[in-house]
Amino acid sequence: MYEYHGWITVRETAVDDDDADRLRQIVDELRLRITQMASPYLLDLRWMNGEPFIHLGGFSNHSLSPDVVGLFEYVAGIAPGSYGLLHVRDDEDPGHENEVRVLRLVRGGLTQHTEALLSPCIPTLEDPFTD
Question: Is residue 131 one of the residues assigned to a domain?
């Protein structure tokens, strides 16, 4: 099972003074990338109060369906001022089957962490399986 929930604030640079034309171009590129992903899950790019945001979430049988980590990597490359979080629960991830992991996007870089508030999944989120 692969469950994910995330968001990204899209910014061209870490300076709060993005070039409006370049930011619109970045959003157009992101919109094309999102369309190509053809996700049946939540995957939304919209402007709110003059700022572009991406929201995503899903629950599938296997990981990378769609490639949400790839989307975070893409954003990091074309808009290094962007920031956001992706929470992932993947029971097929060796060594992390009982954890919720957090992918952090900051200043063009991605790091992974264990989400202490939701891990370990058993017994934090679910009771142990019994016969």
Answer: no
CATH number at residue 101: 3.30.70
Residue 130 in any domain: the answer is no
* pLDDT tens for each residue of 74-117: 999 999 999 999 999 988 888 887 799 999 999 999 999 988 87
Domain that holds residue 85: 2-124
Residue 9: closest CA among 51, 69, 63: 51
Most confident of 22-31, 33-42, 89-98, 115-124: 22-31
State if pTM tops 0.70. yes
Structure tokens at 47: 């402007």
CA distance 97 to 1: 10
Q: DSSP for 75-126?
A: HHHH-TT-EEEEEEEETTSTT-TT-EEEEEEETTEEEEEE-TTT-SHHHHTS
39-64: per-residue pLDDT in tens?
789 999 999 998 999 999 999 877 76
Q: Is 10 helix (H, G, I), strand (E, B) or coil?
A: coil
Among 76, 72, 56, 70, CA closest to 3: 56
